[in-house]
Amino acid sequence: MEDEHEATDHLSIWIDEKLSSFSTVSSSGCSIFRVTNLLRQTNEKAYEPHIISIGPYHHGKDHLKGMEAHKMYYLKRLLQRRGETSVHRYVMALKDKEEKIRKRYAEPLDHNIDGDALVEMMLLDGCFIIELIRENQTRTQKIDVDFRNFNRLSLKRDLLLVENQLPFFVLSELFNMTGEPNQAKVDQDFIDMALDFFGRVMPGYGKGIDSSLVISDSDQNIKNLLSLVHDSWVPSPEARDNYRKNSAAYGGWKFKHCATELHEAGIKFKKMDNEKSFFDIKFENDVLWIPTIKMYDYTDSILRNFIAHEQCHNNYRRYVTDYVTFMDCLINTRKDVELLRHSEIIVNGLGDDEDVATIFNGLCDSIVFSNKNFYSEIFINVDKYCGRKCNLWMANLKHNYFNTPWALISFLAAVSLLILAAVQTIYSHLSYYKR
How large is the angle between the packed helices 168-177 and 115-138, nearest 10 degrees? Predict the structure, then answer.
């Protein structure tokens, strides 16, 4: 019995020691997460950097080491531009924030990276990002010849990965420390420059944050670059107001028919001109107005990481998740993509419509959907339209008899013959009674 108690006590001590050495991270302070295994297994490459590692999660991987020299080059160029010979003041500023930096990462870094290594990483990665964004804005710096070999669109894609982020306050601090002496509203300048930098990789236009707003507490409002771009890519204020007013009345969402079936039911698809936001979709009369989405090699990764970002934060409005859910309901096969492409709603930079269909059909795998989809009202109104018998009858008539000029001519000829036959019958009856 004593041996049993001793063994139990030994086990208690062992567990207590493990607990004391275990580093806990408050989820409320985290802003940089790992993608969940459920999401990662749907398309692992979409969440992995191709060219550059930013932050600790992918640091040191062999295929990303080539960019480390470019980070050094950009830091040296920054010092030369400012007439400085040492990084001392930047290192000291980051050392003061080391504990705060660690708390922003959901995965504990205590056993993976020491303080000096973390500060060096923040300095090199942070200065590279702010100089790259400045370079894009001014276009006055001489670009490293070797750096031209890298695809800049792929680089921008890497900077928008969930796992490839720095805390925004690190970027803000370094940007402020390296700005021009008389520069005003530095935080807002960096925000505007960053949004302009990422503009070309976005699948569509988003109505975002007020550009005149001076961010007084960037640490709380903006978590990282991905957070900044995501939060600027939202529906227009009018669309959001309409959703807030009507969301309580609409709970269900999902089309019962794909795009080609809706088209056969009489619904027309038209590109939204002069859209205020990529997310502003409307259904008026028998027309579904949808802004254009541009599909390229990197679009799948951009959308997946925005969705993963929304899935990591419970208090986030899931506009991207809701949008891809909407498009997934419209698209089942390449024929649906072809219809939307002919309507100028999809710009297919991938070449094959089947590839676009595959992307949209896979984006919603293993995600948590919104309780009330942003497009619930449209889902319900479209299904109501399709459920009206007169609309189905008219759509069937158009599909079977008015789909080509020759079919229309044949239909009119048949109607004319019926009318002539009816007139002849009536005339014959009238002639008979006159006798």
Answer: 60
